[in-house]
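Exercise 7b. Backbone tokens:
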């Protein structure tokens, strides 16, 4: 059923890629080059992935993640350079170019414009470039398109929006966990300004840690990964923070039922240096206190960023995120001076320092220093006994990334990175009588040095053929072992005609750290472990084919992809394993493999009074493991076969908007008890009842069929102040989504009626109201 051989020979494929790179490098020719930054005219923010082209020609490119572009043009000719980006007015500029020069482009946001869909020639150029590009498994999520969508609590939650994308399956109801193309949740690489976020959820996963007011760009990659990405098998969620307005000071924020937030930004030195600082806090604890209940829990986030334009060639960015979940419970025991206490803190802390340098109009570089920490602390005390359990992950990383714009048709991106992972699970400190059976321990500190070199070549062979090919060579050094991985990537796109293309891709990925959870402790205690001499790195090979089309008359972009993915060296744990406080976790490991295959469909309308998307995923996900009870081939827990949703925005007037989501998802799987038998215990004095289980994950829970709505009322705008009210509802049809399965009596008044499984939902209808402002 599974095959260990891969389709390509590692070394032959790597040699082929190197020859391709050398072939293109050797054919360099001198050109007149325009380069510069594309920015928002009002704020000075860099515009990422905007389309830049020479009007009435096939010459086009796009800006990078910092807004930088480079474009070759004919010397001494009159040209019109144009720029388009979703949510912005198209821009044109007349030029007569005699030599290479810097041409910065400033475009204007379409804020508050209300138009029926009309696709101009310039906007059509941008969309067609996207449709025919050598990208697959890629979604660029427009914040303007999703800002009004309903979520639990009313505040925009980007991870809940990610769950609406094709190929993505959600975890439990209302939670931020997601599973991409058959992978596990820890196989998603989540980045904010290049720093890894190990725990993306607050409130046990019901809210994401990402404040929507500070996010500038959001990309989800599910396959055909560019070579600069690695370290996870299933997906990359790349989030970029705003840079801060370098023109004028302003503030924005919101007040909702569960949390409030405030963001301040403005120039430190106009046109050269700006700042952004943003904070968010929930007041769940305060709300419960008002109605006479005690829930001593809250979470908070803090984002900060400073950027400094040293010159046209040099820019410095400093960004940071800090967030924490806090629970603190203290109760008197009744005896003087004695109390019972319990609590935990759980948080992320990231810092990124980046230096952009333009060596010449064709060579752009970014150098990064990255630090990230994830840790939790669980505290408890009873009488004289005190207990502290800790775990933390700390990364220090360096990265050098170069982009060489050889011609508009040939771009080479190359570089390297190194990350030192320090992981310390199961740190224990005890005091009192508890120390006699649970000794303090510093925890087993584990280090892993993960390195990679990569090169990625994007080139257009002609009008029809486009290629994106790359190679990533990774390795990981741990105690007594070194691992190496060859990770080729290849994407090809063939344009059938002006507005459609067929595509195919192959990608290999390696993962050198993984996350485990205890099946016996219901606490926020995710533990991250690196590979070891016994535990090999996980790897995956993924093939996909697809078709993309743009229906220009109605402004709808269509895409369909079929994928097949093999996964190797996956890890599971023997049923009932206790991983918390256990340093011998490797003895409980079970190694196996998996595969996933399916089809995705998406129809998207980006602009106009009515916009949104329709997506559908048919997914099959299987695992193959040998447990202590024998080999099992079974469907994965989140093999949620059908995933269908409709997401719509309707700008009814300039001051009134409506948004809705309809979602249908097959239920998650579980392993039921199908019988039981009686067996005498060892002393032969009592009878033990032994359950009999079905095949693993043999039964599926009921499907989710839910509608969420949101109404937005914009107050009258003044020159200095904007505000809006939103009123919405999650699950307005009150359709119960199963969250847990319990065995309960069929008739509580009749013990002889027997027992059966009962599905319990978590949420019924959830009302939300809030107020957003900006000045």
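Sequence design result:
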């Amino acid at each position: 059923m599974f095959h260990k051989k891969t389709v390509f020979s590692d070394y032959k494929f790597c040699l082929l890629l190197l020859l391709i790179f050398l072939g293109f490098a050797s054919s360099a020719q001198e050109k007149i080059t325009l380069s510069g930054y594309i920015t928002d005219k009002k704020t000075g923010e860099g515009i990422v992935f905007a389309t830049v082209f020479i009007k009435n020609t096939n010459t086009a490119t796009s800006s990078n993640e910092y807004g930088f572009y480079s474009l070759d043009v004919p010397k001494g000719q009159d040209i019109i350079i144009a720029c388009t980006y979703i949510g912005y007015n198209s821009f044109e500029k007349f030029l007569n170019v005699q030599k290479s020069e810097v041409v910065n482009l400033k475009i204007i946001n379409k804020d508050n414009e209300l138009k029926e869909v009309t696709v101009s020639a310039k906007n059509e150029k941008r969309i067609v470039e996207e449709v025919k590009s050598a990208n697959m498994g890629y979604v660029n999520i427009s914040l303007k398109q999703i800002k009004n969508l309903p979520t639990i609590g009313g505040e925009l939650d980007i991870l809940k929006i990610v769950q609406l994308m094709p190929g993505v399956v959600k975890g439990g109801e209302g939670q931020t966990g997601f599973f991409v193309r058959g992978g596990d949740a820890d196989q998603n690489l989540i980045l904010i300004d290049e720093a890894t976020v190990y725990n993306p959820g607050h409130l046990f996963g019901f809210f994401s840690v990402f404040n929507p007011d500070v996010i500038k760009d959001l990309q989800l990659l599910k396959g055909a990964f560019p070579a600069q990405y690695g370290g996870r098998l299933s997906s990359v969620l790349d989030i970029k923070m705003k840079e801060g307005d370098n023109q004028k000071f302003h503030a924005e924020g919101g007040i909702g039922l569960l949390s409030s937030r405030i963001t301040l930004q403005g120039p430190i030195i106009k046109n050269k240096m700006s700042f952004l600082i943003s904070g968010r806090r929930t007041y769940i604890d305060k709300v419960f206190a008002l109605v006479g209940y005690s829930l001593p829990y809250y979470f908070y986030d803090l984002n900060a960023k400073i950027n400094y334009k040293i010159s046209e060639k040099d820019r410095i960015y400093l960004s940071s995120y800090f967030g924490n979940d806090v629970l603190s419970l203290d109760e008197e025991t009744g005896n003087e001076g004695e109390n019972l206490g319990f609590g935990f803190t759980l948080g992320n802390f990231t810092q990124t320092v980046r230096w952009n340098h333009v060596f010449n109009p064709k060579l752009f570089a970014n150098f990064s220093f990255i630090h990230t920490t994830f840790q939790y602390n669980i505290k408890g005390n009873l009488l004289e006994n005190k207990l502290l359990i800790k775990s933390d992950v700390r990364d220090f990383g360096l990265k050098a990334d170069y982009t060489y714009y050889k011609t508009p048709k040939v771009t080479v991106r190359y570089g390297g990175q190194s990350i030192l992972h320090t992981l310390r699970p199961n740190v224990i400190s005890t005091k009192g009588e508890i120390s006699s059976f649970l000794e303090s321990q510093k925890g087993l500190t584990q280090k892993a040095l993960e390195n990679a070199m990569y090169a990625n070549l994007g080139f257009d062979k002609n009008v029809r053929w486009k290629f994106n090919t790359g190679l990533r060579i990774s390795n990981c050094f741990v105690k007594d072992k070194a691992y190496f991985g060859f990770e080729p990537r290849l994407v090809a796109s063939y344009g059938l005609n002006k507005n459609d293309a067929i595509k195919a891709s192959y990608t290999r990925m390696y993962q050198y750290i993984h996350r485990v959870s205890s099946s016996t402790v219901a606490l926020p205690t995710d533990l991250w472990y690196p590979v070891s001499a016994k535990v090999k790195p996980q790897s995956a090979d993924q093939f996909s084919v697809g078709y993309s089309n743009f229906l220009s008359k109605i402004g709808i972009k269509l895409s369909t992809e079929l994928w097949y993915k093999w996964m190797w060296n996956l890890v599971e744990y023997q049923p009932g394993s206790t991983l918390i406080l256990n340093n011998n976790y490797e003895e409980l490991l079970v190694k196996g493999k998996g595969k996933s295959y399916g089809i995705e469909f998406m129809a998207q309308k980006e602009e106009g009074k009515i916009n949104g998307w329709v997506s559908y995923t048919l997914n099959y996900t299987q695992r193959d493991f040998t447990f202590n009870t024998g080999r099992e081939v079974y469907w994965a827990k989140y093999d949620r076969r059908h995933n269908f949703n409709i997401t719509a925005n309707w700008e009814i007037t300039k001051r009134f908007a409506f948004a809705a989501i309809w979602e249908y998802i097959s239920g998650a799987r579980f392993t039921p008890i199908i019988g039981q038998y009686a067996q005498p215990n060892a002393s032969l004095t009592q009878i033990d009842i032994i359950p009999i289980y079905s095949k693993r994950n043999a039964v599926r829970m009921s499907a989710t069929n839910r509608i969420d709505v949101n109404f937005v009322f914009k107050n009258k705008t003044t020159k200095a102040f904007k505000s809006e009210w939103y009123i919405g509802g999650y699950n307005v049809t009150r359709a119960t989504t199963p969250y847990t399965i319990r065995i309960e009596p069929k008739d509580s008044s009749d013990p002889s009626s027997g027992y059966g499984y009962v599905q319990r939902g978590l949420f019924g209808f959830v009302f939300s109201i809030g107020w957003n402002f900006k000045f």
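Instructor comment: The CA atoms of residues 143 and 217 lie 7 Å apart. Helices lie at 10-25, 121-132, 143-146, 158-162, 284-290.
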